[in-house]
């Protein structure tokens, strides 16, 4: 057992609100869950020592923290400062058909609808998801009405002061035929600990464009999840960009609950120093005719460690599923480490599923070629690394976001410890 | 300890155990006393007994692994008898007329020669006159080459230094639950030593290892290929093997010294149980080899039997430039469950490994590939290539892939690919349009699917394996 | 050429794929030794006819009849039809990885011999025949060892189909757009192969979109298939007429004189 978990459970006992039954259930499950160790499959390569040692504390004073500005990009800003939703930063004139409110402010009927979704998409196996169930106080519910296309993206920012521990939670409901773009972003300032979970209910024919930026570095702990439930003919396109930190762990779950759903997931992460980044991506094909395409690329330098688990699970009725996972990794240093585990679990015969994983270093021939053309070795390495990731940046549907991320990634490559 | 012995003795009386050490079967149960008696029956030296006992003590502290994707009722290790004397001549069938005709029908289909049929069916050896002379010539040839090929129980007496040095050196006593159990209670198995620079003059096959009837459920094999030597070893056979023992926990250790090469081929066709999975064999095997400098170990397996298979033949690529290979066909049908794969642990520079697996699932079976490729920091320039393909026949079965890929060396290259498919309607139509019935068409397509692995098998084994697949698939096409 | 015995007789055939009607009342009579060309625009149902006659899953016959040598084709399984002497040369032959051409062909030939009550052919004899067939269709003998169609070019696949035909010696060969994707040299090889197999007791249905192939394989009859029916029949000159005028004029005209072949 961990002191950290004990204290989290103790703090949760004091919360009594509309989510009480969900919180009680989570605490029940937590009581039965043992603290993950190396022998816990989901945490095999990711030790939780940083959490055990964390000195981060909940901060109750109200502070104003501002999300990063992005050129040529304006979004409807949903800002959590140290876990508190800052309503003052939310624009007052929301587009028609879009509603944003704290769960506690919803009508009873709305609350009951939100409760029906809460923690049903995020699987119960995520131990920090349960902690979040119990501890996230300002739970935000975002809904798009049937058939409404919201053009302006929504950005959910979890912002933390130095030394802060916070837990943020959002539920996003896309009604049938609607469309929405959501960006999840995190910024923290050292010694912080964050759990941030978002559940997406994507109804029939709805379209979700999703981004999750996990760009905090250094001695921050960020554990979170993005969980998607796709109904008939729903579509989602998700892009994940991650830098590592003391401990960065992200779980995504894509559930094809309806038939003919379509999911694309592109994830890239670039690790340096002693960073760790752990991505667990699970796709559940529970209905027929779904398609999934996943591309995960990772570059690890210096003493960093990358972990990837990509599970595709085809349920017995999910005939005619097409699912593909491609995982490519570059290891740049002899102190760095990559652990990857693509998994297929298939119970339907008329499906096409494949995964591929490679671990390698930069193509020596390409490197040599560039050097013969007068490019310095270091520069050539950056170019080649960048090309590897750039292919995925090019697939980002939002150009402003792509142009925001691109120079940051280039900058990171320039700093990377290569040998 | 005395308490345990007392308990065991009490149980013996309950079970009505009549102690006649020469010829009887032990009463069910496992404790140190049982191990002492096994060791005594074999007339083992003290060191061997101590080794067994220390393994047993480790085992008591261990837990049965539960991470494999297999589901079976818990094994009651106290309900198993750990020693059973070989059947006497008079209990064995005198001729093939006395053998289960179902078994003979399958032998026929596999095209197994009559002599071998007699051996497989356990015909009393004096009735199998010809085969004895086959075995004799065989032994003479090996002796000439200086190759030692004998039961491990014999090796413990005749070659104690070799056994002492290498037993448990590749699979440590407490490697895993079943391996520890095997160390404590193994009854017999093969021992092979190939001297330096020697190419074993023939393929060594368990067929021809006499005294091996009834090696029982805890078989132990140790193969040592000294520097620059070469050996090909065939284990099992394509014929269905019936066995009263439900639990099998074998251990195989291979040692390939510098520049040596060991090729180990297995065809496993133990009883898979009935359509509901009742009565089949649990096959929990630990197989591992260590490769020294420029050595090569190649595992090839065709797994069609057993109700539950838990098996990961592995290579530790310790020496620079060493090579590990794993080629596998695993076919499951009915209610069979197989969780099988390999581990390639790259320690040395420029080590190379290749993994090719073909899983075929039919009926209500589940077939999983589980593998680990690890590049340690010293594995400069190491390479791995893995290809795992699964084929599903019918919509009630499962095909799974769980590869662990771990790299800690930037100059190592790992490539892993996995695909899942079914026998396509187009392929079936083409075959049938040319006049083949659906069953023949499926078995032909499945055999083609497995070709990359079959070509690694010794010739006659490959032909039999193809036929075995065909027979195993009978009735799988709906 | 025999003019007496009908080999294939199709009467008022209606067939559909995934509930979509494709063949809508087709009549055709092919006598032993005859070569019939079936031409028509894309989507007319040309390939469907071959699939229906050979009994492909998913192609269901709604009404009508088809007999081969007096036997009801439609009652038979796909492999039984093959053993009864029906051969379909595919437009897009599928690959069967790992199964060698030789193994596949020997199994097919043996299955058909067995159905006729003959003994399996010896491997040596078969290899001799297979090598000769390779030579005849201009495929290197090494192709016998390769996986069925595995990594073959389009032209090689077509020649491989023809080689199978030579070895199986069917009574009725349906060539489904065998000319598509072939250059002129390959086309000649295919045509020579077919011509060499023409005999008094073997018939061909040559399905093609273009007249080109018929320069080399002279048909006895040409039929135009449009919207699931034969809308016009004639002799070899009809093909030339179609080449010159296209299909559009026929699609407007009601079919009146459906010639019995």
From TrEMBL, chain A:
Residues 18-156 form the SUF system FeS cluster assembly SufBD N-terminal domain. Residues 163-388 form the SUF system FeS cluster assembly SufBD core domain. It holds the Pfam family SufBD_N. InterPro entries: Fe-S_cluster_assembly_SufBD, SUF_FeS_clus_asmbl_SufBD_core, SUF_FeS_clus_asmbl_SufBD_sf, SUF_FeS_clus_asmbl_SufD, SufBD_N. Belongs to the iron-sulfur cluster assembly SufBD family. PANTHER family: PROTEIN ABCI7, CHLOROPLASTIC (PTHR43575). This is Fe-S cluster assembly protein SufD. It comes from Marinomonas vulgaris.
Automatic annotation (TrEMBL), chain B:
This is Fe-S cluster assembly protein SufB. Belongs to the iron-sulfur cluster assembly SufBD family. InterPro entries: Fe-S_cluster_assembly_SufBD, SUF_FeS_clus_asmbl_SufB, SUF_FeS_clus_asmbl_SufBD_core, SUF_FeS_clus_asmbl_SufBD_sf, SufBD_N. Transmembrane segments: none annotated. SUPFAM superfamilies: Stabilizer of iron transporter SufD. Residues 143-199 form the SUF system FeS cluster assembly SufBD N-terminal domain. The gene is sufB. Residues 208-449 form the SUF system FeS cluster assembly SufBD core domain.
UniProtKB/TrEMBL annotation, chain C:
Keywords: ATP-binding, Nucleotide-binding. Residues 8-252 form the ABC transporter domain. The keyword Nucleotide-binding applies. It comes from the Bacteria. The keyword Secreted does not apply. Transmembrane segments: none annotated. InterPro entries: AAA+_ATPase, ABC_transporter-like_ATP-bd, FeS-cluster_ATPase_SufC, P-loop_NTPase. Belongs to the ABC transporter superfamily. Ycf16 family. This is Fe-S cluster assembly ATPase SufC. It comes from Marinomonas vulgaris. The gene is sufC.
């Amino acid at each position: 057992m961990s002191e950290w978990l004990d204290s989290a459970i103790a703090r949760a006992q004091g919360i009594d609100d509309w989510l009480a039954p969900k919180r009680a259930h989570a605490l029940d499950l937590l009581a039965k869950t043992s603290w993950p160790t190396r022998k816990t499959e989901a945490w095999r390569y990711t030790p939780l020592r940083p959490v055990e040692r964390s000195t981060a504390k909940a901060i109750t004073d109200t502070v104003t923290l501002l999300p990063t500005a992005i050129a040529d990009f304006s979004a409807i800003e949903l800002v959590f400062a140290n876990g508190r939703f800052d309503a003052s930063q939310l624009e007052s004139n929301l587009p028609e058909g879009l509603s944003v409110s704290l769960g506690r402010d919803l009508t009873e009927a709305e609350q009951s609808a939100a409760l029906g979704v809460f923690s049903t998409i995020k699987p119960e196996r995520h131990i920090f998801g349960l902690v979040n169930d119990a501890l996230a106080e300002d739970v935000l519910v975002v809904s798009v009405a049937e058939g409404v296309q919201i053009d302006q993206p929504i950005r959910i920012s979890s912002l933390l002061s130095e030394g802060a521990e916070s837990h943020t939670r959002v539920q996003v409901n896309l009604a049938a035929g609607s469309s929405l773009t959501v960006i999840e972003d995190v910024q923290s300032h050292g010694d912080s600990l964050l759990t941030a979970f978002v559940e997406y209910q994507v109804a029939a024919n709805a379209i979700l464009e999703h981004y999750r930026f996990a760009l905090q570095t250094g001695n921050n702990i960020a554990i979170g999840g993005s969980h998607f439930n796709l109904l008939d003919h729903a579509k989602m396109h998700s892009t994940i960009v991650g830098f590592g930190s003391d401990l960065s762990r992200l779980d995504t779950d894509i559930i094809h609950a309806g038939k003919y759903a379509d999911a694309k997931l592109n994830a890239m992460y670039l690790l340096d120093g002693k960073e760790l980044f752990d991505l667990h991506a699970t796709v559940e094909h529970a209905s027929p005719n779904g398609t999934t395409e996943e591309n995960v690329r990772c570059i690890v330098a210096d003493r960093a460690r990358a972990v990837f688990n990509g599970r595709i699970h085809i349920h017995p009725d999910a005939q005619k599923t097409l699912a593909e996972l491609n995982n490519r990794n570059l290891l740049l240093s002899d102190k760095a480490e990559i652990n990857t585990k693509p998994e297929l679990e298939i119970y339907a015969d008329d499906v096409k599923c494949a995964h591929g994983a490679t671990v390698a270093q930069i193509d020596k021939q390409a490197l040599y070629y560039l050097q013969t053309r007068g490019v310095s070795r270091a520069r050539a390495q950056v170019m080649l690394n960048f090309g590897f990731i750039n292919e995925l940046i090019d697939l980002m549907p939002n150009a402003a976001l792509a142009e925001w991320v691109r120079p940051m990634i280039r900058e990171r490559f320039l700093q990377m410890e290569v040998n | 300890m005395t308490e345990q012995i007392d308990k065991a003795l009490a149980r013996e009386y309950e079970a009505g155990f009549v102690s006649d050490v020469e010829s009887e079967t032990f009463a069910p149960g496992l404790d140190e006393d049982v191990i002492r008696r096994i060791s005594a029956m074999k007339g083992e030296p003290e060191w061997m007994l101590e080794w067994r006992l220390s393994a047993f003590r480790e085992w008591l502290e261990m837990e049965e692994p539960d991470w494999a994707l297999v589901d079976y009722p818990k094994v009651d290790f106290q309900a198993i008898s750990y020693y059973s004397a070989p059947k006497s001549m008079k209990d064995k069938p005198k001729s093939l007329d006395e053998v289960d005709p179902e078994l003979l029908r399958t032998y026929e289909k596999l095209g197994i020669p009559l002599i071998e049929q007699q051996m497989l069916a356990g015909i009393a050896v004096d009735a199998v006159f010809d085969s004895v002379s086959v075995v004799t010539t065989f032994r003479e040839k090996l002796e000439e080459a200086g190759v030692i090929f004998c039961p491990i129980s014999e090796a413990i007496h005749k070659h104690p230094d070799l056994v002492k040095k290498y037993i448990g050196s590749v699979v440590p006593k407490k490697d895993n639950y079943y391996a520890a159990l095997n160390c404590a209670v193994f009854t017999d198995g093969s021992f092979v030593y190939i001297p330096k620079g020697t190419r074993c003059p023939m393929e060594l096959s368990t067929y021809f290892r006499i005294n091996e009837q009834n090696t029982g459920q805890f078989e132990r094999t140790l193969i040592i290929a000294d520097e620059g030597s070469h050996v090909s070893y065939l284990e099992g056979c394509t014929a269905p093997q019936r066995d009263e023992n439900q639990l099998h926990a074998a251990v195989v250790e291979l040692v390939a010294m510098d520049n040596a090469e060991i090729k180990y081929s297995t065809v496993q066709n133990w009883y898979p149980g009935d359509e509901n999975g009742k009565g089949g064999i649990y096959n929990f095997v630990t197989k591992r080899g260590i490769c020294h400098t420029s050595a090569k170990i190649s595992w090839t397996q065709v797994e069609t039997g057993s109700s539950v298979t838990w098996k990961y033949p592995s290579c530790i690529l310790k020496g620079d430039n060493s090579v590990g290979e794993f080629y596998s066909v695993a076919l499951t049908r009915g209610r069979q469950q197989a969780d099988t794969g390999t581990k390639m642990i790259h320690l040395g520079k420029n080590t190379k490994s290749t993994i090719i697996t073909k899983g075929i699932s039919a009926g209500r079976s589940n077939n999983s590939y589980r593998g680990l490729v690890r590049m340690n920091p010293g594995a400069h320039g190491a390479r791995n290539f893995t290809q795992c393909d699964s084929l599903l026949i019918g919509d009630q079965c499962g095909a799974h892939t769980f590869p662990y890929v771990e790299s800690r060396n930037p100059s190592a290259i790992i490539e892993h690919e996995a695909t899942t498919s079914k026998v396509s309607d187009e392929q079936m139509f083409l075959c049938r349009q040319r006049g083949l019935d659906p069953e023949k068409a499926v078995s032909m397509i499945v055999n083609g699917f497995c070709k990359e692995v079959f070509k690694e098998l010794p010739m006659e084994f490959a032909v039999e394996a193809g036929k075995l697949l065909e027979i195993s698939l009978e009735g799988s096409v709906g | 050429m025999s003019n007496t015995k009908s080999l294939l007789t199709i009467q008022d055939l209606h067939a559909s794929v995934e509930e979509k009607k494709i063949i809508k009342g087709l009549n055709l009579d092919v006598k032993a030794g005859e070569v019939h060309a079936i031409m028509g625009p894309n989507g007319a149902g040309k390939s469907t006819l071959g699939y229906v006659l050979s009994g492909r899953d998913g192609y269901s016959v709604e009404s009508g009849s088809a007999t081969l040598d007096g036997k009801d084709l439609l009652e038979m399984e796909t492999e039984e039809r093959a053993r009864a002497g029906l051969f379909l040369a595919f437009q897009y032959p599928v690959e069967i990885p790992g199964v060698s051409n030789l193994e596949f062909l020997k199994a097919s030939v043996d299955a058909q011999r067995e159905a006729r009550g003959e003994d399996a052919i010896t491997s040596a004899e078969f290899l001799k025949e297979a090598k000769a067939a390779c030579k005849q269709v201009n495929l290197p003998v090494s192709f016998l060892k390769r996986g069925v169609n595995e990594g073959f070019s389009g032209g090689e696949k077509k020649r491989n189909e023809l080689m199978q035909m030579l070895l199986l010696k069917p009574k009725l060969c349906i060539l489904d757009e065998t000319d598509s994707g072939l250059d002129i040299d390959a086309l000649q090889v295919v045509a020579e192969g077919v011509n060499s197999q023409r005999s008094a007791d073997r018939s061909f249905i040559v399905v093609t979109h273009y007249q080109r192939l018929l320069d080399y394989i002279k048909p006895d009859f040409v039929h135009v298939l449009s919207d699931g029916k034969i809308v016009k029949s004639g002799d070899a000159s009809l093909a030339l007429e179609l080449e010159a005028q296209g299909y559009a004029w026929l699609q407007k005209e009601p079919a009146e004189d459906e010639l019995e072949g």
